[in-house]
Amino acid sequence: MENNYLAEVRRRCIAYGMQPTDVPSLRTTVSEEHLQRQKRLYADILEVTKGFGENTIQLLNGQMVSFVVTDDKGLVIDSFGDRIIREQLSQLNIKEGSLLIEREVGICATLITLEYKIPFQTVGTDHYHLVLHESACHSVPFSVPGNHGVREGTISLMTSIVDFSNYQLAMLVNMAESMGRELKLRKTNQRQLDLHHLMVDNLDTGILLADRSGIVVDFNHVALNIIPDYISVGQSSYQITELGPLFLQTIANGQRQRGIEVHFHAGGTHTVCLADIIPIFENGIIQGAYAQLRDITERYLLEQQIIVSEKLSAIGKLAAGLAHEIRNPLTSIMGFVQIIRERPLDPDTARYLGFVHEELVRVKNLVSDFVTMSKPSFPIVKPIEINLFLDSVLDFMEGQAALHDIRFIRDYHTGDQDILYADASQIKQVLINILQNAVEASQPKEAVTLKSTIQNKHLTITISDNGSGISPENLTKIQNPFFTTKENGTGLGLSVSYRIINNHNGEITVDSRLGAGTEFNIRLPLSGILKECPV
Ligand SMILES: Nc1ncnc2c1ncn2[C@@H]1O[C@H](COP(=O)(O)OP(=O)(O)OP(=O)(O)O)[C@@H](O)[C@H]1O
Ligand SMILES: [Mg+2]
User: Fold this and answer.
1) Residues 427, 502: contact at Cβ < 8 Å?
2) Which of the chain's ends, N or C, has fewer CB atoms near its CB within 10 Å?
């Protein structure tokens, strides 16, 4: 059978007018671009062939063999192996980028394999040309499915007649079969991996996987969006600010942690997640852990609003009763104290009555805060000369500031003619609340700045301090009535302020860094357009 193929090709060589004494040489080479395109198309085949081929070279221990891989057109796309054999091949111009053509090379196992799709060997005198009588060539076909259809070609093993053995072809056939199996397995694995990624990437939950040393192995884009820290495969999960301690704990003790509320803060956004950290075991030994993050920000904010409104309604009832019960007697007590203070008194009594009066003012303000929280009065809008107004507020607070050894910096970018339409006494209350907080958060000798700017028909009043700052977690709570970190605080100052500004159709924003300071921005429309119904 084999002889028939050889005889057929030999006949053709004679017909081409070839002389056995000629030295054959390939003349056609493809462009570098074409070669690289084929290399990319056959990349997985080339990789696996190289792996198996190099193993085979080692097994053949000392025999000089070299491998050549061609595509379905006989284009040499890869060659590796013994240097001397490859040099001999390149003398015939058989090298990467050359096209094997029968008219140029004569009898060649690779071309017969390509034509008849069978394993074939040409040994010594089988070749047409005398120069090839010292060499042997075994060739096997391959046919491997790829992304763009089936890729066909050949793998050839070239050697010298001295190192030739009949086992070599069997070995090559075996190698091609193993290569096919390996590629199939790779494809299945890849498909499973793609499926896994598709599933993980389409989940609404963030997934982050770490090995037993805590090194990040994989994560999906949801996790990437939730976690503000930079995360990449290969880094330690223990360094992730909010999740690190959880991973450490689960990997250390193998215990799953469920439903942990984790707060992520990044660039002004606050994301709340429920995190499960689940250990991964294999044969009872911990292999790593993964975090599952469910974004519950919306639900959390809704809950917070409900808490606030529940508190508000409770305050409402309480305040209504309190206002009646306390305000009236308080007014008369303050009146009587005032009458007594106007009489001639000994210095001690006058001083004590001064204290009594101060404390009564505090109680009265507290009651007013409650009343504002329960039923904020509708703002009475009047024109306010901004700079004069700000001066009057700061003058009023000067005593408080002096008590804490704090100085005010006035940084007005508003003009003397600029007018704001608003309820002066309510806005004054807001500024006093925020200035008071700033003064209380600052250290002696520090400054609190009040800045005013007008932009897009809005006035912005910025009050900044270099004080203690507010933690990201507390920042989400400062609007809540009764939230306070102070021993004697009521936690009403800011919640009242937010309400008043909201009723004025304005907004308050806060920027704060723990240990560095806080900046409150109060933005109000100059025109004083109010919300239809204050809340
Ligand atoms: N400038 C600031 N620097 C640091 N923390 C602040 C600042 N402003 C507000 N806070 C924090 O916000 C909390 C709530 O402030 P808020 O004014 O509502 O209540 P309070 O000051 O505690 O009590 P009060 O009702 O007497 O004003 C404070 O307890 C404090 O923790
Ligand atoms: Mg306060």
Assistant:
1) no
2) N
Report how far ligand 2's centroid is from the alpha carbon of 273 (Å).
30
* Segment 353-405, tens digit of pLDDT: 989 988 888 888 777 777 666 666 678 899 999 999 999 999 989 888 998 99
Q: Which of 397, 484, 512 to probe ligand 1 with, by most ligand atoms within 8 A of CB?
A: 484
Contact 207, 290 (CB under 8 A): yes
Evaluate the CA torsion angle 348, 361, 479, 388 in order and state its sign: negative
379 alpha carbon – ligand 1 mean position (Å): 24
What's the topology of domain 382-525?
Heat Shock Protein 90 (3.30.565)
Mutate to test the pocket of ligand 1, among 431, 478, 510 (most ligand atoms within 8 A of CB): 478
Where does 2-194 sit in CATH, by number?
3.30.450.40
Q: Is 486 in the pocket of ligand 1 (CB under 6 A)?
A: yes
C-alpha 268 – ligand 2 centre gap (Å): 22
* CA separation for the pair 129, 102 (Å, rounded): 12
203-295 has which CATH code? 3.30.450.20
Are the folds of 2-194 and 203-295 the same?
Answer: yes
Q: What is the pLDDT of residues 17-65, one digit of tens each?
A: 999 998 898 999 999 999 999 999 999 999 999 998 988 888 887 788 9
